[in-house]
């Protein structure tokens, strides 16, 4: 650090000989001195005299650079006006210096311009000197960037100075920009153009400015792979579009340019031109656009008719809408009114003819063009709707051909929908009421037509035109559709009716509740007595979808419940259908507070469920109550997860199970006991009687949805009972349910001594049960409990996870239960239907799947590599059980390690192993086949050999893998192409059609390898 | 992209597409033999694209299920196709596409015939003769430009 003033000045004097480090150090000591006014800038420049006047230009450069750095480092308010005037004069003069000094001057004036005390005159002087002395495009990229940044700074912050320069600035800017190639600079420049256009008179330079910008249209830019600034083609496209559409003054030049590009053969140019036209039409006036309307219309129409892609079609339609909107905006003048009218008329003239030939291809494009015009405003809408609506309505009635009627009614619906967006059309004197009757005639004929395709199209049309139809007609339509819904067994038709009804419940809820629901409920109550094509489950599904809001819920829920209760004995399947319908309805409606209040308080949901469950368990007549209990449990789960305070309920349930007649029961417990008379007997026999064990389903329903970090007295003993059930119960289903419930509670209870105690006792008990001396079924039950508890720990990311995972890994070598252990690895990562999910408030650690996989993949691959026989197979099975449930990103990191394992699985003797491996492999290869490249020489023959003489699942998966491999680069595949094609030929003659289909598609992909015309 | 002036039939009729083939329970039973039938052959050719339009042969009604005849026992397949207009210059190209697709996708045991539906094209006989001539078909498929056009019809973008 150089401290004294004299030292600094001396250092400055011998600057040209200093190293870069010295210069930096000098800068650091110099700036504070200037700030503290110990050294004045004048002194600095005088001291720099040797370098600034040095005959060697590079020395002069170093001096200027130091000065520039000083300016950039100084605080913005440090220089007074005099100093700035002096420096401005100095730098203006320096512009005349050698070209190698210029970059430093440019850098310096940026620093100078940022000083607060700089006046207008100085900025003008700097800009003029810059424009006069510097030829921008001869500078290197970074210096050009500095120039552009300086210009941008001036126009954004020193607008008075720039305005004083007026057109001189525009000319300077155009000259500087002309020929710029760097994408980053271009993005900057494109952003400056709209500001210039807004603040400055362009005068005679309008066309110059336009030309210099338009030269880049359309953008054709592929970003280099290593671009550190990440400029994308889209940045440029959007920037350029904004610049081109910035002022109406560009219109005379821009529209012909767009017109030219619309006729281009290049797809991207065409698309960009259409988008730019949309942007321009928003800014340009109708006067600008008017002269170009008819050629633009021709290009747009051609684009829609030829329809090279969806994107191009929608862009073209949008362009038409914007163009018409611009004309409408200027409708005050006669000329634009005429232009708008003539556009509408020529569109009508060309399109109406095609509308009358609805079975032909041009029907839809023509309709889309007219609809795009309607979207532009009420002006063209009246004249189009006047012609089109009666035409289509009559045409529907008079045509007989199915596809013609179908297309006509769909388009009629769309026209009505679009027209109804303007309030003046729906008013009494508007077009729509005028033709409502005629259109309804068509709709009503369509609904009662004999062809289901036409009916379906009409239903879709009714949905579009719903807001136009009078409520009387809509009611008629609703009634007809309801009778269709309960009499016709056609999935597509039913789906579109249901969609229409859902839309109707938004627009006209009364019609849905008064006309549709009573009908449906009546049908449901009749049940099997009906003889028509529609099953109960279809009606119930409809009810489940349509029920929303308390109004409908109150009507539906009690009826459904009663019906389910009645059929419980006679037909448990039917009863289950009703219960699951109730569950779906509750899922959809319980978010609503009113509905929730009704279900919990008025309808007494929980007591109903408890009572019904006990009835199902004790009833002798019901042979297999389990499906019913599962449905009830699902209903309870939905209810509990939506209830606000579940603590009393859960505590009472635990109390009931543990209570031995001594302590006082809570009110709620007593109320629960009164739900059914047999409940206390069942509770007492929970551990012993096979029927009473089924209570575990009820408990699952109530307890699975309890909140996180829940604590209750007696929870430990309750969990112990559950563990007992999961290990010793005689029914495998009860075992699994108990294990799932136990694990999902363990997933939620707070960490601490209590948690540790439960985990360690469980661990002891399980180890005991897993002793090899025990019978296999007992060991399997223990394994299942172990797996589920392990899942609970993995999902919440508990420390103990590691020990439990190791325990599972160690079981892989067990001869009796090793294979099951391997399969059980799937349980840990597979999403459960309802447990361990956010909606049941589970404790889910972020990215737990990834963590678990990272932990387990190493040991599994090691076991596979270092063992033989069954253990090897089991390790393989475990790997392929886990893989399908992992996010692909994780797999990519390990794929190199895993592929050799999977490839061996392909040739495994065990069919189960082979099939899982193949399906995993197929999924992997479909995502990224690249990693298979090194193994391809063994993989392809192996796969080919199992395309015949194997079970059909394996044959199909092998073919899928082969198809996925065909996406590899041609040079890799070329050596195998002939072999694959010829060996797949016999597979085309496979005895199963589905296999043949896979073979055709695999063989086609290989035929296309390196073939001309591959898309 | 074909310019509008080059389209021969700008505004063809469009027909509804058939649904998916109905699955039978035996389709997944490995012990049952599924015979080749008309629908299977129709499924092979229905998604071939028309060289002029972004439409499939099925949508233009160029091929129909009823026009595909299959005799599994006698190893013969006969497909009739109907050009959209009697002077369609694309007829032989469409015929060649159908022929190539069937050659690629059917087992070698089948004898495949592709013909124009009688009375639907001006030069029906000439084209039928051309399509039946193995040597001429093979020679045509040697031509890389022609093969490129046909491959684009057989495997349009987005179908795979």
Please tell me about this protein's structure.
- The complex is a heterodimer of chains A (1015) and B (160).
- Chain A has 1015 residues and is mostly helical.
- Chain B is an alpha+beta fold.
- Chain B has 5 helices and 3 strands; from the N terminus they run H-E-E-H-E-H-H-H.
- Chain B has a 3-stranded mixed sheet.
- Chain A binds chain B through residues 265, 267, 302, 305-308, 354, 357, 359-362, 402-403, 406, 453, 951-952, 985-986, 988-989, 991-994, 996-997, 1000-1001, 1003-1005, 1007-1008, 1011-1015, and chain B through 1, 4, 10-16, 27-28, 30, 32-34, 40, 43-44, 53-55, 104-109, 144-145, 147-152, 154-157, 160.
The helix/strand order of chain B is HEEHEHHH
Total DSSP helices of chain B: 5
- Strand segment count of chain A: 0
Shape, per Cα inertia axes of chain A: globular
How would you classify the helix and strand content of chain B by structural class?
Answer: alpha+beta
How large a portion of the residues of chain B is in β-strands, by DSSP E? Answer: 5-15%
Identify the quaternary structure here.
heterodimer
Write down the overall geometry of chain B: globular
Q: Tell me the greatest interface.
A: A-B, 41 and 40 residues
Q: How much of the polypeptide of chain A forms β-strand, as a percent range? A: under 5%
């Amino acid at each position: 650090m150089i401290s004294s003033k004299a030292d600094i000045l001396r250092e400055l004097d011998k600057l040209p000989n200093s190293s870069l480090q010295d210069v930096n150090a000098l800068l650091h000591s110099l700036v504070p001195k200037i700030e503290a006014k110990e050294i004045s800038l004048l002194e600095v420049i005088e001291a720099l005299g040797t370098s600034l006047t040095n005959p060697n230009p590079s020395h002069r450069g170093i001096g200027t650079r130091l000065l520039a750095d000083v300016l950039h480092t100084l605080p913005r308010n440090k220089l007074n006006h005099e100093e700035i005037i002096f420096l401005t004069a100095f730098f203006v003069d320096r512009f005349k210096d050698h070209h190698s000094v210029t970059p430093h001057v440019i850098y310096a004036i940026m620093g100078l311009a940022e000083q607060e005390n700089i006046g207008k005159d100085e900025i003008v002087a700097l800009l003029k000197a810059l424009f006069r002395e510097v030829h921008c495009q001869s500078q290197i990229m970074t210096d050009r960037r500095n120039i552009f940044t300086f210009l941008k700074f001036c126009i954004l912050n020193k607008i008075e100075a720039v305005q004083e320069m007026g057109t001189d600035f525009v000319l300077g800017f155009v000259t500087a920009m002309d020929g710029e190639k760097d994408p980053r600079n271009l993005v900057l420049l494109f952003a400056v153009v709209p500001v210039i256009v807004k603040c400055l008179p362009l005068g005679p330079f309008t066309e110059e400015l336009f030309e210099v910008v338009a030269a880049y249209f359309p953008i054709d830019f592929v970003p280099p792979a290593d671009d550190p600034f990440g400029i994308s083609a889209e940045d440029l496209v959007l920037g350029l579009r904004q610049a081109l559409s910035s002022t109406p003054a560009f219109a005379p030049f821009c529209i012909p340019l767009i017109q030219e590009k619309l006729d281009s053969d290049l797809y991207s140019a065409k698309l960009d031109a259409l988008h730019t036209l949309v942007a321009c039409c928003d800014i340009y006036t109708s006067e600008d656009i008017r002269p170009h309307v008819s050629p633009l219309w021709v290009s747009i129409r051609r684009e829609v008719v030829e329809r090279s892609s969806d994107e191009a079609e929608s862009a073209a339609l949008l362009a038409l809408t914007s163009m018409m909107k611009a004309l409408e905006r200027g409708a005050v003048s006669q000329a634009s009114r005429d232009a708008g009218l003539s556009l509408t008329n020529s569109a009508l003239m060309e399109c109406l003819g095609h509308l009358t030939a609805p079975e032909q291809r041009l029907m839809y494009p023509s309709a889309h063009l007219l609809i795009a015009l309607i979207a532009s405003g009420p002006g063209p809408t009246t004249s189009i709707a006047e012609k089109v609506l009666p035409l289509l309505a009559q045409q529907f009635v008079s045509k007989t051909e199915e596809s013609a009627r179908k297309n006509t009614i769909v388009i009629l619906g769309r026209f009505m929908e679009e027209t109804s967006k303007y309030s003046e059309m729906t008013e009494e004197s508007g077009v729509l009421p005028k033709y409502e009757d005629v259109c309804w005639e068509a709709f009503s004929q369509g609904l009662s037509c004999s062809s289901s395709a036409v009916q379906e199209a009409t239903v879709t049309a009714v949905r579009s035109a719903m807001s136009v139809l009078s409520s009387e007609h809509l009611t008629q339509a609703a009634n007809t559709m309801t009778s269709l819904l309960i009499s016709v067994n056609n999935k597509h038709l039913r789906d579109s009716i249901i969609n229409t009804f859902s839309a109707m419940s938004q627009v006209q809820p009364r019609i849905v509740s008064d006309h549709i629901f009573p009908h449906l409920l009546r049908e449901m109550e009749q049940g099997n007595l009906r003889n028509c094509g529609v099953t109960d489950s279809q009606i119930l599904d409809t009810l489940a979808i349509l029920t929303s809001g308390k109004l409908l819920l109150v009507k539906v829920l009690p009826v459904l419940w009663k019906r389910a209760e009645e059929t419980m004995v006679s037909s448990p399947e039917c009863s289950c259908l009703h219960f699951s319908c109730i569950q779906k309805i509750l899922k959809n409606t319980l978010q609503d507070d009113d509905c929730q209040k009704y279900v919990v308080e008025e309808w007494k949901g929980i007591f109903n469920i408890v009572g019904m469950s006990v009835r199902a368990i004790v009833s002798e007549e019901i042979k297999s109550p389990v499906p019913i209990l599962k449905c009830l449990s699902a209903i309870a789960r939905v209810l509990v997860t939506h209830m606000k305070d579940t603590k009393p309920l859960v505590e009472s349930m635990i109390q009931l199970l543990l209570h031995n007649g001594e302590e006082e029961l809570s009110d709620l417990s007593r109320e629960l006991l009164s739900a059914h008379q047999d409940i206390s007997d069942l509770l007492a026999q929970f551990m012993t009687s096979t029927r009473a064990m089924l209570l575990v389903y009820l408990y699952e329903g109530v307890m699975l949805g309890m909140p996180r970090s829940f604590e209750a007295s007696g929870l430990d003993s309750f969990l112990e009972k559950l563990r007992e059930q999961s290990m010793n119960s005689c029914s495998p289903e009860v075992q699994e349910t108990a294990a799932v419930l136990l694990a999902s509670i363990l997933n939620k209870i707070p960490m601490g001594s209590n948690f540790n105690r439960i985990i360690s006792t469980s661990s002891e008990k399980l180890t005991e049960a897993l002793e090899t001396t025990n019978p296999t079924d007992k060991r399997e039950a223990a394994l299942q409990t172990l797996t589920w508890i392990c899942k609970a720990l993995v999902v919440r990311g508990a420390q103990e996870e590691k020990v439990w995972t190791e325990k599972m890994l160690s079981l892989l070598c067990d001869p009796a239960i090793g294979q099951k252990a391997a399969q059980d690895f799937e349980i840990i990562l597979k999403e459960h239907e309802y447990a361990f999910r956010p909606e049941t408030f589970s404790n889910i650690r972020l990215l737990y799947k990834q963590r678990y996989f990272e932990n387990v993949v190493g040991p599994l691959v090691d076991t596979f590599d270092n063992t033989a026989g069954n253990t090897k197979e089991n390790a393989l099975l475990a790997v392929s059980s886990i893989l399908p449930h992992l996010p692909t990103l994780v797999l990519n990191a390990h794929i190199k390690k895993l592929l050799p394992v999977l490839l061996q699985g392909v040739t495994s003797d065990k069919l189960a192993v082979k099939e899982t491996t193949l399906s995993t492999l197929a999924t992997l290869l479909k995502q990224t086949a690249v990693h298979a490249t090194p193994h391809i020489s063994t993989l392809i023959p192996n796969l080919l050999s199992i395309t015949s003489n194997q079970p059909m699942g394996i044959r199909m998966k092998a073919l899928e893998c082969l198809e996925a491999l065909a996406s590899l680069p041609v040079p890799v595949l070329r050596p195998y192409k002939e072999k694959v094609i010829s060996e797949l030929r016999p597979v085309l003659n496979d005895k199963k059609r589905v296999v043949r289909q896979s073979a055709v598609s695999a063989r086609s992909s290989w035929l296309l390898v390196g073939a001309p015309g591959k898309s | 992209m074909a310019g509008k002036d080059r389209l021969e039939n700008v505004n063809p009729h469009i027909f509804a597409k058939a649904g998916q083939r109905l699955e039978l329970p035996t389709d997944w039973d490995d012990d049952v033999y599924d015979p080749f039938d008309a629908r299977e052959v129709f499924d092979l050719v229905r998604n071939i694209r028309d060289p002029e339009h972004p439409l499939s042969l099925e949508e233009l009604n160029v091929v129909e299920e009823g026009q595909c005849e299959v005799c599994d026992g006698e190893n013969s397949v006969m497909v009739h196709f109907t050009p959209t207009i009697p002077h369609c210059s694309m007829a032989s190209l469409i015929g060649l596409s159908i022929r190539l697709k069937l050659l690629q996708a059917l087992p070698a045991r089948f004898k495949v015939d592709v013909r124009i539906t009688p009375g639907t094209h001006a030069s029906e006989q000439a084209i039928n003769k051309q399509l039946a001539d193995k040597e001429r078909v093979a020679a045509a498929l040697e031509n890389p430009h022609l093969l490129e056009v046909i491959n684009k019809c057989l495997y349009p973008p987005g179908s795979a």
